[in-house]
Design a protein that fits this description.
Blueprint (H helix, E strand, L loop, with lengths): L1 E3 L6 E7 L4 E10 L4 H15 L3 E12 L1 H16 L4 E4 L3 H8 L3 H5 L11 H35 L6 H11 L4 H24 L7 H39 L2 H7 L4 H38 L5 H11 L2 H27 L5 H33 L1
Parallel strand pairs: 3-4, 4-5
Antiparallel strand pairs: 1-2, 2-3
Helix pairs in contact: 1-2, 5-10, 6-10, 7-8, 7-10, 8-10, 8-11, 8-12, 8-13, 10-12, 12-13
């Protein structure tokens, strides 16, 4: 058997021997990616036709061999050995032997360490519950360490990077003022306008002021601020620390003797705690302003009557309670953002995943906390 090709994919295969006996073949020319599969197919055909007792492949005539060609030869040898057929590769050049030594055929043929198993509904629910418990444990552990670091700052305030705190206060607070003001104003307009349709049926449009005032001071002011800060600053914290994890900057800080929690997370959390109450008051003001605009321009309520009704509906306890909630939301948002950033392992894709997870998780926890606060506030009346 003799096979010779011409052109850029040329290779030579010369076979000597009889069927069922020892067979030797000489392989030459170019064995590379463009013809490796064809070479392997010719050898499989040779084994099927001649059924040799032993096969010796002389590689002395090979002019060019790349990793794909070497993989084809080693695959041939492996397949023959599984059929109890000894195949020997001889006279390989040093360059060819070096390329063949780079290939770990056992690792290539090994099954994946983790095989995807299709789970039924009960198993999926159980797996989800286990993941939820694990995430809750990690989150609680992180917040325990964070609160410990924050408590330490009360006794050693000079260790806090106050310049960084001021920088984060500007990024978290001042830069959020335009979008927060617009969002709360529009929300106040919508709440007042929609509630007026129902109250007009009873001739009680003046109570639009009560509804907007109580809604924004007790709930919407702190909640809308928390949602906005979660999307703006919580995601930014996760992306910043996550990028530092990818670049191994967090490990470098630890090697230099800095505590990553105190160096990176504490300034962000402190800055968010300081600006959240101010932003909440700002949100309340624009929300009430939106209700006032609807009341005066559409419902024919005088400015004095609207303001006076709002003042009678509100109390300082509601105001202070909302500010307290905003501080709690600040710790939740900044803490979850930092925690997700510290969890990043891998590349840029993991940074994006951590950022998305930080926003979703913080929004969920803030809404759950808001529900709990509302229930507690109603029972404390």
């Amino acid at each position: 058997m003799k096979k010779t090709q011409t052109g850029p994919r040329a290779y030579r295969l010369e076979v000597a021997g009889r069927k069922g006996q020892e067979v030797s073949c000489r392989l030459g020319g170019r064995i590379a990616l463009d013809n490796a599969y064809e070479v392997l197919g010719d050898f499989r055909e040779l084994l099927a036709q001649m059924s040799p007792a032993k096969l010796t492949v002389d590689l002395d005539g090979i002019d060019y061999l790349d990793s794909s060609g070497a993989l084809a030869l080693l695959t041939l040898q492996s397949e023959a050995q599984r059929q109890n057929l000894p195949v020997t590769l001889v006279n390989a050049t040093p360059e060819a032997r070096r390329i063949m030594d780079l290939i770990d055929l056992k690792a290539i043929e090994a099954p994946p360490l983790r095989q995807e198993v299709e789970l039924n509904l009960i198993e999926q629910l159980g797996q989800g519950a286990v993941r939820l418990v694990e995430e809750a444990y990690k989150l609680l552990s992180f917040f325990g360490e964070l609160l410990t670091s924050l408590a330490g700052c009360l006794f050693r305030p000079r260790q806090v990077r106050w310049a960084e705190v001021l920088a984060y206060m500007y990024r978290t607070g001042v830069e959020a003022l335009p979008i927060l003001g617009l969002m709360s104003l529009l929300m106040g307009l919508v709440v007042a306008f929609m509630s007026s349709f129902q109250l007009q049926q009873f001739g009680a449009v003046i109570y639009v002021a009560d509804l907007v005032g109580i809604g924004f001071v007790r709930e919407l002011g702190s909640l809308l601020t928390g949602i906005l800060i979660s999307g703006r600053s919580g995601s930014a914290f996760a992306a910043e620390i996550g990028t530092m994890q990818v670049n191994e900057e967090v490990d470098a800080l630890a090697v230099m003797g800095f505590e990553p929690m105190r160096f990176l997370a504490v300034p962000k959390v402190l800055a968010t705690m300081m600006v959240m109450p101010v932003l909440t008051i700002y949100c309340m003001f624009f929300g009430l302003l939106g209700g006032l605009i609807v009341g005066v321009s559409i419902l024919d309520i005088t400015t004095y009557a609207y303001v006076n009704e709002t003042r009678k509906a509100l109390s300082l306890s509601n105001f202070y309670y909302s500010l307290f909630k905003s501080v709690v939301y600040a710790v939740i948002i900044a803490g979850i953002g930092c925690q997700r950033g510290f969890q990043v392992r891998g590349g840029a894709q993991e940074v994006g995943t951590a950022t998305t997870s930080a926003v979703v998780t913080s929004l969920f926890v803030v809404i759950v906390a808001s529900s709990i606060f509302s229930i507690v506030q109603n029972y404390l009346k």
